[in-house]
Amino acid sequence: MLLFKYMKINIMSNLEYPLATYSTLLARMVGIILELIGLFFLFDRFQSLVGYSLYEVGLCYLIIRLANALSICFGKGYNSMSGLIRKGAFDTMLIRPRNLVLQSFSHALDIRDLGVSVQYIIMLVLFISIYGVNFTVMKGIVLLLTVISGTAIFLGILMISAGICFFSVKNIEAVSVFTDGGVKLGSYPLTIYNKWITRFFTFIIPFGCANYLPVLYIADKIDSYRWLYMLSPVFGMLFIIPCIFIWYACAKHYSSTGS
Amino acid sequence: MKWFKGIFKMTFISELQYRAAAWSGILTNIFIGAIFIMIYSAFYKSSTEVPMNFKDLASYIWLGQGFFLLTSLSFQDWELIDTVRYGSVSYEMVRPYELYGFWFGRLMAQRMAAVALRFLPVLAVAFLIPDPYGLSLPATWTGLILSIISLLLSFILATAISMYVYIFLFRVLAAWGATTILAVISSFFSGGIIPIPLMPDYMYQIVNALPFRYLGDFPFRVYTGGIGTNDAVFGILIQIIWILGLILLGRVLFRIASRKVEIQGG
Fold this sequence. Notes:
The complex is a heterodimer of chains A (259) and B (266).
Chain A: H1 2-14, H2 18-46, H3 54-74, H4 76-79, H5 81-86, H6 89-95, H7 100-105, H8 111-131, H9 137-168, H10 176-186, H11 195-204, H12 212-218, H13 226-237, H14 240-252
Chain B: H1 2-17, H2 19-45, H3 54-66, H4 68-71, H5 78-86, H6 89-94, H7 99-128, H8 141-171, H9 175-189, H10 201-208, H11 217-224, H12 229-259
């Protein structure tokens, strides 16, 4: 597949600088572990978070961070859309007889970002194997869907901000409120916040579908309508569809910056 | 002092040029502060035995967001890092002044300018948020004065610590990894990830043995009154000792490292 070929080339170019790559990965690992230790410390102090245990919060925490890491990994082209437009690299993409969305996805995949995602996957597996109780195959599938759903939501946000770039050329920095803020917010079950925040991030930007809804199922906290909670990640994924259309609509208005 | 003022002014003006970035930074800090407050208020509902009351915690978090760039060691001068990387550091080295002192001043002026531009809007918003979620007035006037002294010293301390990145840079050109490791460690031990009073008791000893808590945790708690006047004065003395120690060691290491520097390309 073309997508994987793109990725392989990018990864090989990263490996030309092994020291920079490894030191960055090490640095990210230290960061990930220290932040996780912070979470453990909080539960050491408070025992529970309004009824949620360490297991449930830890799941939310790791899922959203993994999803964000994956979206950074695969959405690099959208993240750097402003640069692509300014340097005229987007023109080159337009000439190629390949799908624009695909080209943007695979643009400049960085092994360091991929490494961060792998680190989070390891953390998530370790966390579940230590704290998880009667973890079934079905729960594994729901977990996988949840991660994909979270990634799709973050990618959707990146695509919309990239779409705005076609008009503004400059990156819209305020979007980081939704991406970085989404990570911070979604690291905990959304129901602990004000109900308007919970509603906004469940029905408008569906972070809830990659957060407390499936986690409640995975942690066996649901008695009725279980299938609805199991399917919630799928609803979350739908978010990316309007985002793709919006991005296409914006890309139609693209005029080259000519450099 | 004249060149220090010059650099301060220059950075301040160039930061003003990137107003949009500064505003979005301010917005993000306010947003993240609000999220932290909501998370901790939920945690506080789940337990009554807490080492710090919620009002003080809220002030602590808002101060942490307002002075985010003061405590953050990922705030570095990438232009300076590039001079080592691309070899133009050789011009710097032939200049007739001590490089350590000049870079120190440059980094500190930048840090002060960036913070000066950002902290007021964040703290102003935090003041407007009602009790106990917002930033409260300081416990005592002496507490306020001591915390301001300590915050000013924090600028020197943060710069002294970040100079070690540049020392490391002379040996290894990939600076990003070293900077990030230092930044996350300092963020953890200065109460940036979770407030230090909420850490388990056994962590206090480790935290106290390191300089990082004097960047943020200490001045913030002097402000809220969590640290009394006597302890605050004593703490400021320790802060000064850390500053002197780190600068002296840093200067020696900087000289040794810069003597062996390899000039890259041209």
